[in-house]
Design brief:
The complex is a heterotrimer of chains A (about 425), B (about 160) and C (about 950). Chain A is α/β, with parallel strands linked by helices and about 425 residues long. Chain A has 17 helices and 8 strands. The chains are: A alpha/beta (about 425), B alpha+beta (about 160), C alpha/beta (about 950). The complex binds flavin mononucleotide (FMN), iron/sulfur cluster and FE2/S2 (inorganic) cluster.
């Protein structure tokens, strides 16, 4: 099984130096890209079928191709790596950031060449201190070696890259909110349209891509689109970092072919449930995806299949719910997170999530009523996609709406028994 | 009062260095707050006014940004800031019990600072280390796989 | 045009708006909060949700926000679909989770947009059973009250205050459901436009603090359409009364003038009307004694005196209506009527009238100012001399960048997107003033100079535009004697050359450049050069605009009625020589109309002039040094108790109406003057319209003023227009302690308005609209129903009439090198040369303080500056004077000790004093003073 993305990452926790990275073929993708026209690079990425690994799964090549190009395009464009990883239960970008920042820098460079960007940023969440050290050092090395700055690798291509460490708030990961944060403003999301690809950072065309997305880009350039597509099991292109947390025997993170079955990840790689715990459900791609249960275990973990099963691939990191953990409590924890992380701009999210949280809290305390379930269901419609200004609140509704359906009996028990039947969490 | 009295020359030049890279001075607002906080652990009203002067913004505009972000502290914090993850994986793995332990040991609740100014206890969203839940950050150090037993010795490392 | 389908009804609509604005324009009811017709769309509140269908087959539709949805041909939407209705009700329900149930004690109650929208969505049953979040409130100064718990986080306040009005001290703090709108710390809101928060906020967070002091529900107010009298811009207002006092001022929408907004002087400066010091009864005064008279006695008394004296002399006023000034002129005769302003100001105003009348450049309305794309302000501190013009110029500054965004196919109404792309950039905007101004922050470039040098700069710009250049060396020459103290303002000549060139280029590059100037520096060359630039731009095929700022509400009207000024009256009264024994007071009777001479001229001069008259009749509303010397005092109405017409700086004649009939001796000045004219002239018995007829007959160029509003005989059907809303309460109870009978409502023979709640219930003609109210719309947002389309003209057209339009041939404006007769271009002055040891004092205008009437309003008083003197900092440093030091200066014959301010940016050799404060009243700017040194203590 090929693991092109993580194969070279060292087990001792240190990152690949420039030398080490070059020794395993690093920056060859960039050199290849510089021999191609920007349009050819974009086409290669499009052909490879690479989809955004940040959660939404938007085809990366298509995104790049909407950036204005040519002599009339703005002289300044930006390329940004989204390293804000803060989705509950997601811990995939951390590995790439701590283990091999040069791979990300190379991906950024290729992307920047493809859209002819002049400046780039890595937008890193504050908590990733080890990654910050690694990235800063690798950027320094890359400048020194002429991979960043003017006349990159002897070409006419110039790119500056800076690291921006954020100061908290999950919403910064939303790409337009991220732009506001980079501009030194409150990170409320921006109106779309216009899309950042045309009017982004400081009003200029901007691409924001997830770290994992970008780390795949050098591989596509060196390996070619066909090779990349074949990496996946189901034809969507590439490998994927899958992770699992919760009461599984071996929580962890694995690079596997895109489309690996949920069961395989859970049972083989994560080692199945811890002794004494039974599987009850799973959030397949982080905190803002719908629960899947037993019946979905054979779903291939790719974008299409997980959607068909009623959830989303999201970040591809499983959060496993066991039978000794209260599903209502778990959803309450998630909604508390989303309520607190709401930016406060639009009404449904700002007012709806705290209400949702209070209702779930009251269920957990044993003071819930049957009508509360109607209100909760109402909230899931009220905060449905399109109803809010950005995708935070609709994301927050995904675990809730699926829990209300799949674990209805557990919600009812809280009401009838006037307490949390698990009562194992405060 | 002029800026020079509020912010150190080192801080001021660090902030100036940042905004040189942006089309607008105000774009250095968050970086400026970080620089100040690095020096003083938190950002006082005075420091806000000082930064406002350098960036040619109003104090209100700066504070609007400062109060938005959870990791800019607008109130004094202790020498060591404990950020305990309370997101979903850590919750499943028992972060509430860890929190209870910490609170009991330090005799503080979330948002509070110990009377000796040694610790401030806060929560933080998912630390991205869910396979080693529960987890926390103290200052800049990540601590993972927390248990009721190992939490005490970890806290002791911080003066 | 686009054909769209709303709830299966097809409409043909203008495609330039969003779906919300379009629906409202069609008269459909669709709730909203964050959208505002002047602030546009950001999509935050999610209240305007509707269903949008992909095509005819799509029956399910998808929720979209109407305010963010462009109109496209064949668009299919539903406002009434159950899914959309449920969403909107749910959204209100969510907002209500934290909104207090305090409507009965909330100042907004009964005119609350949130109440209206709640009722509109049908949400009425609370399901939320948890605690509400609470916030602390802040002290925000004397104008605006803060009650944060009522906030529904629509973000309109900060969008108006910061983005639209350029305010700095109100912002949004924190995040998620804790967002807080207020100041960083308690204190008075600094923006000159803070009062608009009262109307912009959809609920009771920001309310009118002056109203709170004598609170009255909207439905209990008697309202009249009025015109603000606090500066020369003439904003349209609604003035409201209960129990004989004015309770508040609101914006009266007029897209051609102030649109949706007002400045704080206009909104809160009304309180002097309620002053306990109001002159309320006619009086005869002799020595120190005074006798209250009845109206009849007073008139008989004064008529006797007038009959006995051989001469009458009348002093008119720029703050009195055309009608009052006209009747005074009738009474004393045109030869003896003097515009009650100094000659220096009068000549400038006459010059402006000449330029308005005979210029080839359009003077845009205040509303149209926003459509220009480059600005050059010459010599005006606009924020303080014409505040609402400054607010609109801030929008003008965004015009250029916004046009670029529009060219990228992003609709201008998508404010969120426009803002993200414009990124705070402003278009070409140049300011030449003697000192720093609030608009400097949006200027491309500012230039600080003495008024003479400002004129020279403007002249050079005109020359650059009008190639080939008439050869002239109009650059401020470097002055050898002052080069040592050449501060930041004494720019080298080459610098001025490049700057004037760049201004000229910017104006020539723009499509619609706007030149703004005015009377505040008392310089005709400035006016002429401003007009010269504008006409040169016109010659170059541009579509320029030219705006002049004038000092007072009816400055233009007064200047049109007379070309004699105060000095002319002084000369007529006797030689101007204080040494000489005052001549025996001549037999002339002096009649002063709503004017305090001590505001207009030196105290010694006013004293001398008054002392030369044995009988002085003063018509005024508040005591002042002039009224104190009256032998006969007549209590004049303020703008709230009178009907009248005034002409603003644009040359727009506008009508204001009496709000209520005072129950004391107060009457309109023109009514008093009618009394004095009784038996002499048929005009004495005429009603308001009859006076207009006579006025127009004598001044045919004012003909339009007779058509500003429907005549008094106008009826909708058979009905008058009520000043009181249909829900007016307590009419029988209000005076029950005095009389249990319901009093007969007073009639109004002068207008088509009635003083009652009975009458026509529909939308009245715009000039006669006393309030906005529409079924389901109790808040100020009801204005939507009075407009042909939202944000557009009113049904029946925006009121007011422009008296002047540009003409093809025009009088010469470019000043020449040699001096020419008055009223034609004056010579370009030589560059200002400071005289060592002397300070040339320039006027500094203050929105709160420089207008003496509004300055007597308690709330405004709190915001007035203390007297001070501003000095050029280099000169001051040379004299050892520092910021905060005190200096002693001789003003108006009195030694005054004033604190020093140094950071006003004044050019070398100049100083500034606040205009119009009690300490500086009557000073004829500019004048020279000497300052010995700082007083140290
Ligand atoms: C509330 C919210 C938080 C998000 N956080 C992240 C994040 O931390 N990292 C990330 O890569 N994408 C995040 N996204 C997705 C981004 O908006 C964006 O789609 C992504 O960065 C695009 O990159 P991709 O196309 O490479 O996936 C978030 C989206 C939302 C709505
Ligand atoms: S859904 Fe609305 S309030 Fe929530 S984060 Fe997005 S924009 Fe902010
Ligand atoms: S009015 Fe449309 S979202 Fe607020």
């Amino acid at each position: 099984m090929e693991q092109p993305l993580t194969r070279h990452i060292k087990k001792d926790g240190s990152w690949l130096t420039l030398k080490e990275y070059e020794a395993v073929g690093g920056y060859q993708g960039l050199k290849k890209a510089l021999t191609l026209t920007p349009a050819e690079v974009t086409k290669t990425v499009t052909d490879a079928g690479l989809k955004g690994r940040g959660g939404a799964g938007f085809p990366t090549g298509s995104k790049w191709s909407t950036v204005p190009m040519g002599p009339d395009a703005p002289a300044i464009k930006y390329f940004i790596a989204n390293a804000d990883e803060m989705e509950p239960g997601s811990f995939k970008d951390r590995l790439l950031l701590e283990g091999n920042p040069h791979q990300l820098i190379e991906g950024l460079l290729i992307g920047a060449w493809a859209i002819q960007a002049r400046f780039s940023f890595i937008f890193l969440r504050w908590a990733y201190h080890q990654a910050a050290k690694a990235i800063a050092e690798c950027i320094r090395e890359a400048y020194e070696a002429g991979y960043l700055g003017a006349h990159i690798a002897g070409s006419d291509f110039h790119l500056d890259l800076s690291l921006h460490t954020s100061v908290g708030r999950y919403i910064c990961g939303e790409e337009t909110a991220l732009l506001n944060a980079l501009e030194g403003k409150r990170a409320n999301p921006r109106s779309k349209p216009p899309y950042p690809t045309v009017h982004g950072l400081f009003g200029k065309p901007t691409i924001v891509n997830n770290v994992e997305t970008l780390c795949n880009v050098p591989l596509i350039l060196t390996g070619g689109a066909d090779w990349f597509i074949k990496l996946s099991k189901t034809g969507e292109g590439g490998t994927k970092l899958y992770g699992a947390s919760g009461r599984v025997k071996k929580p962890g993170l694995w690079e596997l072919p895109l489309g690996t079955a949920l069961r395989e990840i859970l049972e083989e790689h994560a080692g199945g449930m811890k002794d004494g715990y039974r599987f009850k459900g799973v959030l397949p791609g982080g905190g803002s995806t719908d629960f899947l249960t037993d019946e979905h275990l054979d779903t291939p973990m790719d974008y299409k299949s997980v959607s068909a099963a009623g959830s989303r691939l999201g970040t591809g990191t499983l959060i496993v719910l066991d039978d000794k953990t209260c599903p209502v409590g778990m959803v309450r924890n998630l909604e508390q997170f989303f309520a607190r992380e709401s930016c406060g701009w639009c009404t449904p999210c700002r007012e709806g999530l705290p209400w949702t949280t209070k209702l779930l809290d009251s269920l957990e305390k044993g003071t819930g009523k049957m009508e509360d379930l109607d209100i909760l269901t109402f909230q899931t419609h009220y905060m449905a996609p399109g109803n809010t200004f950005c995708a935070l609140a609709p994301g927050a509704m995904e675990p809730l709406q699926s829990a209300l359906k799949l674990f209805k009996a557990d919600f009812d028990r809280h009401i009838h028994e006037h307490k949390c039947p698990w009562n194992n969490h405060g | 009062m002029t800026t020079e009295n509020i912010l150190t020359t080192a801080e001021i030049s660090a902030i100036r260095e940042i905004y040189r890279h942006f089309p607008q001075k105000s774009a250095a607002c968050i970086e400026g707050l970080k620089i100040i906080q690095r020096q003083r652990r938190w950002v006082s009203d005075e420091a806000i006014r000082g930064l406002a002067e350098i960036l040619e913004m109003s104090p209100a505009a700066i504070d609007s940004v400062a109060t938005y972000y959870s990791l800019i502290f607008r109130r004094p914090v202790g020498r060591n800031v404990i950020l305990l993850c309370n997101s979903v994986s850590c919750w499943i793995m028992g972060c509430d019990q860890i929190a209870a332990c910490v609170k009991k040991q330090l005799a503080v609740d979330y948002g509070e600072t110990t009377t000796d100014d040694r610790y401030t206890l806060l929560t933080i969203p998912c630390l991205g280390t869910c396979d080693h839940a529960p987890a926390m950050i103290i200052n800049e150090d990540l601590h993972r796989d927390l248990t009721a037993e190992n939490i005490g010795p970890i806290l002791q490392q911080y003066q | 045009m686009a054909n769209i389908l709303i709830d299966n009804v097809s409409y043909s609509v203008d495609g330039s708006k969003n779906v919300l604005a379009t629906s409202l324009s069609l008269g459909l009811n669709l709730p909203y909060f964050c959208w505002h017709p002047a602030l546009h769309s950001v999509g935050a509140c999610r209240q305007c949700a509707i269903l949008k269908y992909k095509n005819a087959e799509d029956k399910k539709g998808k929720i979209v926000m109407a305010c963010l949805e462009p109109i496209t041909d064949q668009l299919r939407i539903s406002i009434e679909a159950p899914e959309a209705r449920q969403f909107r009700a749910g959204n209100i329900e969510a907002l209500m989770t934290n909104h207090p149930h305090d409507c009965p004690v909330c100042d907004e109650g009964g005119e609350c947009h949130l109440q209206d929208m709640t009722v509109m969505t049908g949400h009425n049953c609370r399901r939320y059973e948890f605690k509400k979040r609470t916030h602390g409130n802040q002290y925000l100064g004397p104008f605006v009250n803060h009650e944060m718990n009522r906030c529904i986080q629509c973000y309109r306040c900060v969008r108006f205050y910061k983005d639209y009005a350029g305010g700095k001290d109100l912002d949004v703090f924190s995040s998620h459901d804790e967002v807080y709108f207020g100041r960083q710390e308690e204190g008075a809101l600094e923006s000159e436009f803070s009062g608009n928060l009262v109307e912009v906020c959809p609920t009771g967070v920001f309310t009118d603090k002056t109203l709170k002091k004598h609170f009255t529900r909207k439905w209990d107010l008697t309202d009249a359409p009025s015109i603000c009298h606090q500066c020369g811009v003439g904003c349209n207002i609604i003035a409201s009364e209960r129990y004989g006092s004015i309770r508040r001022i609101l914006t009266r929408y007029n897209g051609d003038v102030n649109g949706y907004f007002l400045c704080d002087r206009g909104r809160f400066g009304y309180e002097y009307v309620n002053s306990p010091g109001r002159i309320s009864a006619p009086a005869r005064k002799q020595n120190a004694s005074s006798w209250i008279l009845s109206a009849e006695e007073a008139i008989a008394d004064i008529k006797k005196i007038l009959g006995a004296s051989n001469k009458k002399r009348g002093i008119g006023s720029p703050r009195a209506s055309l009608e009052s000034n006209f009747l005074l002129r009738r009474l004393v005769g045109p030869d003896h009527f003097y515009a009650g302003i100094p000659r220096a100001e009068g000549k400038l105003l006459r010059r402006i009238v000449a330029l308005l009348k005979n210029g080839k450049v359009k003077t845009p309305s205040l509303g149209e100012v926003k459509d220009y794309d480059a600005v050059f302000i010459i010599g005006e501190d606009v924020t303080n001399t014409a505040p609402m013009l400054a607010l609109n110029l801030r929008q003008t500054a965004r015009k250029g960048p916004v046009e670029l965004v529009k060219a990228m196919h992003i609709p201008e109404w998508n404010d969120a997107a426009v803002k993200d792309i414009v990124q705070g950039t402003t278009g070409p905007f140049y300011i030449a003033t003697p000192h720093t101004t609030a608009l400097d922050e949006i200027a491309t470039r500012t230039y600080r100079a003495h008024p003479d040098d400002i004129a020279r700069i403007a002249y050079t710009v005109a020359q650059h535009i009008q190639t080939p250049l008439p050869v002239a060396d109009a650059h401020p020459t470097e002055n050898p004697s002052s080069s040592a103290e050449a501060g930041r303002t004494a720019s080298p000549r080459s610098d001025i050359e490049t700057m004037t060139k760049s201004i000229a280029d910017a104006l020539l590059t723009a499509k619609k450049p706007l030149i703004v100037s005015g009377t505040s520096l008392y310089s005709q060359p400035i006016l002429d050069c401003a007009a010269g630039i504008a006409s040169a731009l016109k010659d170059k095929g541009k579509d320029p605009g030219l705006v002049f700022i004038v000092p007072e509400a009816n400055s233009i009207g007064l200047a049109m009625l007379s070309d004699q000024f105060l000095e002319d009256a002084f000369e007529k009264a006797g030689p101007d020589d204080t040494e000489e024994e005052p001549a025996e007071p001549d037999e002339a009777t002096l009649i002063i109309l709503e004017n305090d001479l001590y505001e207009r001229t030196y105290k010694t001069q006013a004293d001398l002039f008054l002392s030369r008259h044995k009988n002085i009749v003063v018509l005024d509303s508040l005591e002042n040094p002039t009224t104190r010397q009256a032998t006969h005092l007549l209590p004049a109405a303020t703008f709230t108790e009178a009907d009248g017409t005034i002409i603003n700086n644009e040359g727009r004649a506008q009508r204001f109406y009496q709000v209520y009939i005072p129950d004391n001796g107060v009457r309109s000045s023109w009514k008093w003057l009618q009394g004095l004219l009784a038996d002499q002239s048929p005009i004495a018995t005429r009603h308001f319209d009859g006076i207009l007829e006579c006025l127009v007959l004598e001044f045919p160029e004012l003909a339009a003023i007779a058509t500003l509003a429907p005549a008094a005989g106008f009826r909708e059907g058979t009905q008058k227009i009520p000043r009181e809303p249909h829900r007016y309460s307590g009419r029988t109870a209000m005076h029950a302690n005095v009389n249990v009978n319901e009093p007969q409502p007073s009639g109004d023979a002068d207008s088509a308005l009635s003083f009652t709640m009975e009458g026509y219930a529909g939308i009245p003609p715009p000039a006669l609209t006393p309030f906005y109210w529409s079924p389901g719309w109790n808040s100020v947002q009801a204005i939507n129903k009075y407009q042909i389309e939202v944000g557009g003209p009113l049904h029946g057209g925006n009121p007011g009439k422009r008296l002047f339009e540009p003409v093809a041939a025009q009088l010469s404006v470019i000043p020449s090198a040699e001096s020419s007769p008055a009223a034609s271009p004056q010579a370009i002055p030589p560059s200002f040369t400071p005289v060592p040891g002397q300070w040339l004092v320039l006027p500094l205008y203050h929105i709160f303080g420089s207008d003496p009437l509004s300055a007597q309003s308690p709330a405004i008083k709190e915001r007035m500056p203390q007297p001070y003197i501003a000095l050029n900092d280099t000169n001051a440093a040379g004299a050892g004077i520092l910021e905060g030091h005190f200096v002693e200066v001789l003003l108006n014959g009195q030694k005054q000790r004033l604190p020093v301010k140094l950071n006003a940016g004044l050019p070398p050799g100049t100083a500034g004093l606040p205009k119009g404060l009690p300490a500086t009243t009557g000073l004829p700017f500019p004048f020279s003073i000497t300052i010995n040194s700082a007083l140290h203590d």
